[in-house]
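Forgive a beginner's question, but would it be possible to get a protein, spelled out as residues, together with the matching structure tokens, please?
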Amino acid sequence: MPEVVTVGPAGLGARSWRGGGGRPVLLVHGLSSNAQLWDGVAARLAEAGHPVVAVDLRGHGSSEDVPDTDTDDLDAAPTDPTRLAAEDLAAVCADLGWSAPVVAGHAWGGNIALQLAADRPGLVHGLALVDGGWLHLGDQFPDLDAAWSVLAPPRFDGVTSAAVRASLRTGHPDWPEAAIEGVLGNLRERADGSVTPRLERERHRAIIGSLLRHRPRTLYPLVRCRVLLLAATGDATPVRKRDQLSEAATAMAHAELVEFRGGDHDLHAHRPVRVAEEIARLA
């Protein structure tokens, strides 16, 4: 079982597995997700001897939405959420005393992990981008309003956790039970029994805006470590995604594409054993 800890100067919540003397692994969730979804992957990495920490990013899971500027400086511009999250990860590594971890990020977490590897090329030993990290929302949407009209999270007015659990089990019959519980960790239960996302709606919108501005292709040449692109693919994979994967695999000097045919976007939840095996290859 993981230990629930607080890491880094921002006081991020995290789940920690002691593992052994192997190379440490830092796990980063995606937008409006949480560290618990990594439990299946983390447990297997720890069994293989790797110390593992899965963080809850600001405003997600057990982490508060810590202000990203000095609140006394009214003229200070807020830090971009993706860049701020990458800075938080660097601070977490320093706090843990990790000088060369493997870093794995899912979806938006992949973009964050990519930013970290580009900004701190001497820090990241290996990079696993789990169905993300090559996201270019700016190629798809002209502005934030257009992106928000498609990507805004659903509202849960009056919906109970029991109803969400039942829906998840129906929609993902081959998911481990731990993954179902991990998704429920994205929600907070109200006094009346209904649920609401832990991530505030305006913060969610701000992160979508950050993804619109983020340009992974400008970072690819800066990444020096080995990279695994772990991609959920199938017969219906959009051409855009294929093109983005091909671009990333070609532009990064030490990148390898690994396809999970028929895998869900949440690969770490759906296929934790294989995802853990792939991440361990980077150690």
Observations:
- DSSP finds twelve helices and ten strands in the chain.
- The radius of gyration is 18 Å.
- Residues 81-96 form the longest helix (16 residues).
